[in-house]
Amino acid sequence: MDYQKLMQELIDFRNSRGWDKGQTLPNLAKSVNIEAAEILEIFQWKKTNDELSEDEKTHLKGEIADTLIYLFYMCDRLDVDPMDVMKAKLEYNKGRKWD
Predict the structure, then answer these.
(1) Taking a C-beta distance cutoff of 8 angstroms, is the pair 29, 94 a contact?
(2) Residues of 46-72 as b/e, b for ≥16 C-beta within 10 angstroms?
């Protein structure tokens, strides 16, 4: 599925539930942080070399999706394409010195 089609499905889903008015940039930023914390929670008591169980991998995929969805909603509010933002950041990073 391409980005434009997925973004439209996300917008339609959000709007069908009346969530669009509450999704201000500050609220979306808070939601991104909350979902990212839920990603971290999966690893909270693991040692660095511990493998994830299948249930944990499934849970992790869901939390990654939640985080990305809120980031996509932020991009929608800012009227930016997330692919363009990532490409620009990659180009910027290629030009940086990493000492």
Answers:
(1) no
(2) eeeeeeeeeeeeebeeebeebbebbbb
Total number of domains constituting the chain: 1
Q: What pLDDT, in 10s, does the model give residues 42-98?
A: 999 988 778 899 999 999 999 999 999 999 999 999 999 999 999 999 999 999 988
- The CATH number of the domain holding residue 38 is 1.10.287.1080
Long-range contacts (CB closer than 8 Å, 24 or more residues apart) made by 52-55: none
Question: Is 99 contained in some domain?
Answer: no
**DSSP letter for each residue of 75-87:** HHHHT--HHHHHH
Query: First vs last Cα of the chain: how many Å apart?
Result: 38
Q: How many CB atoms lie within 10 A of CB 74?
A: 19
Q: Quote the domain boundaries for residue 66.
A: 3-94
CB 14 within 8 A of CB 24: no
Is 53 within the bounds of a domain? yes
pTM of this prediction exceeds 0.90: no
